[in-house]
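Re: [ENG-882] Designed sequences occasionally contain unexpected residues at chain ends

Forwarding the minimal case from QA. Structure tokens:
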């Protein structure tokens, strides 16, 4: 993923952070964000036409996971964000943007 896409994804995610949503609704917001930025809503959709997309929702959610958790493998991101709260989650995302 290029630097511009990383910054766009994290900036838009931070702007529209919804920690008050149920996990499924929250993930649907990530799908909407992905599609709006040129990523496929599902890996299956991306595999069918890789040239039409920058990647898929899994790539976007992994980027968010890394920004919030500092690693690509971690406990559930939604749950961790619930524990961290909005302010700390946004601060971690902003730190990740600043490091780009």
């Amino acid at each position: 993923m290029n630097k511009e896409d990383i910054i766009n994804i994290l900036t838009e995610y931070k702007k529209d952070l919804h920690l008050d949503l149920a996990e499924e609704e929250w993930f649907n917001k990530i799908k909407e964000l992905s599609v709006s930025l040129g990523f496929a809503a599902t890996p299956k959709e991306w595999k069918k036409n890789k040239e039409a997309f920058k990647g898929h929702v899994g790539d976007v959610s992994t980027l968010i996971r890394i920004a919030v958790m500092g690693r690509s493998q971690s406990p559930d991101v939604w749950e961790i964000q619930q524990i961290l709260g909005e302010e700390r989650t946004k601060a971690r995302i902003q730190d990740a943007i600043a490091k780009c």
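QA comment: On inspection the terminal residues look reasonable. The radius of gyration is 13 Å. Proposing we downgrade this to a documentation issue.
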